[in-house]
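Because showing beats explaining, we let one protein speak, sequence and backbone structure tokens together, and leave readers to judge.
___
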Amino acid sequence: MTDFSKYASKWTFPFKRRAYWAWFVLAALILLSTQFPDWVGRNYTHGLFKWLSYILRTVSSQFPNAIGEYLYLFILTMLFINIIRSLIKYKIEYNHHLSGAKLAKKIAIKAAYFLLRFYVLFMLLWGLNYQQASPAKQFGFEVKEHYDDVAIEHFTLELIDELNAIRAQLTDSALKTVSKEQILVASIQEYEQVSVKYPFLKMAQPCLKFSRYPFIGDYLGFMAFYHPLTGEAIIRGDLPLLTLPYTTCHEIAHQLGYASETEANFIAFVVGAASNNKLFKYSMLLELFSYAQSAELSEIAKSGNFDNWKKVIERNKKLLSPLVLSDRKKIKIFFLERRGLLIPASTSMYNQFLQWNKQAKGIQSYDDVLLWALAYRAK
């Protein structure tokens, strides 16, 4: 061994050992910080994450396509290759000198260390946003924990009236002239306008892109997603036009650090409610009505009174204008046509992911936007 090799070896080992333990220290500090939501919001969401995501969006904005999709593909490919290589390596070790027990222990340690590093990187790039204090403080109201059946029923009827009124002002000919690219641009403008009233909703360097492979969403069950490694909000371009404004506003909320699906839904509601753009307001109302009617019917179903369940559906159909009913039918058909393609495991995994990140109801937490909307309207 040369003098240089000896020198390099002397310093490499301590560096690797320090780097090894640094991951444990970072993990411990992150776990500790989750106990202080206000600190997380002040120093991470509005500090580290704000500037880091800004840099990521600035870089990814230079590319016309959603590079996040290609990045995920690359990561999955490399992960698959490394798993195959590791299996081959462990098989050789087992055949030569390593006992089954020692091999299992070695694999377990390697896997645990990999998960530790993944946890640290995920939390630093995005995950700590789940631990910040509720944004209800920013808006100055409190959110109830449970629905009030009467309030939900009144809310549903109010939404029906608003849907009918807004849809009457949206002509089919006008809707046909709106392109999906225009909606992305308009979404950014809507956030600019609402930030006048709520400065904390100001969006710097937005990065919205349509997915190059929207059909993947049929199997994984997504309409859009935020990419923490690139800062991009990636939206399915094949979605029905009337769902796009609300979906896009939801993803911009994620870019601002509102990680919870309930909170991102609420921010999209606030933007739609404050909008002078009838299409954006209508898109928000359509989404909110779906949640409200679902919540109302769910409460009735718990009582077992299915006659009343049918009556509510019929009542709502009679009250909604034919144009609104037609719009809802088109949206429903879009998702029904793809329902059989959804991989069940993807839904279960996403549900578990949400529960791990302080959303106890999992996928059902999307519905909690009603509690926020009612509190906001009451204020």
About this structure: Residues 136-378 form one domain. The longest strand covers residues 208-210. The longest helix spans residues 3-33.
